[in-house]
Amino acid sequence: MDNLIARVAGAADITPEVARKAVALIGDFIQREAPEDAVRDLFEKAPAFPAIIASSTQTGGEGMGGGLKGLMGVSAGAMGGGGLMALGAELMGLGLGMEQIQTVGKEVFAYAREAAGDQVVGEISASIPGLSQFI
Predict the structure, then answer these.
(1) Nearest-angstrom CA–CA distance, 73 and 114
(2) Contacts for 63 with CB less than 8 Å, ≥ 6 apart
(3) 132 and 125 Cβ atoms separated by less than 8 Å
(4) How far apart are CA 47 and CA 126, in angstroms?
(5) How many angstroms separate the CA atoms of 58 and 116, rounded?
(6) Do 88 and 102 meet the contact criterion of CB atoms below 8 Å apart?
(7) Beta carbons of 55 and 25 less than 8 angstroms apart
(8) What is the pLDDT along the chain (135 residues), one digit of tens a residue?
(9) How far apart are CA 115 and CA 108, in angstroms?
């Protein structure tokens, strides 16, 4: 877990605290938006993700049931405020600029690819419109 935080912090030139929050937001987003089987595979092979999500007090879907999160993601996306745009806004709320957000995304997904493989990451990327440009 600490290796991923240090990796993200170093690459994006941010503090470990901000890196932890950013990784937690991205992990929570994946958990809410990606297919359950792919998320399960990722979290089993990359246990840092669920550990970081659990250790963070600031994640986008905290406290919501899976059905409600999915419904809100779909309806908010239809109105232009959900999905990646909402995640981007949350990451900017941490003080990250666009270049840092892209760097964080690339590092998080590089770690995911190393841990879970191309197939799992490809399934996640294919299921979330626009995600491929950030990984």
Answers:
(1) 28
(2) none
(3) yes
(4) 22
(5) 25
(6) no
(7) no
(8) 889 999 999 999 999 999 999 999 999 999 999 999 999 999 999 999 999 999 885 544 443 333 333 433 443 444 344 688 999 999 999 999 999 999 999 999 999 999 999 999 999 999 998 888 777
(9) 11
Q: Which of 31, 21, 28, 4 is nearest to 93 (CA)?
A: 21
| Whether 41 contacts 49, CB under 8 Å | no
Q: What residue type is assigned to position 86 of the chain? A: A
**What is the distance between the alpha carbons of residues 58 and 47, in angstroms, rounded to a whole number?**
19
Q: Which of 95, 73, 82, 79 is nearest to 22 (CA)?
A: 95
**4-8 long-range Cβ contacts below 8 angstroms, 24+ apart:** 4/48, 4/52, 4/108, 4/111, 5/52, 7/107, 7/111, 8/104, 8/107, 8/108
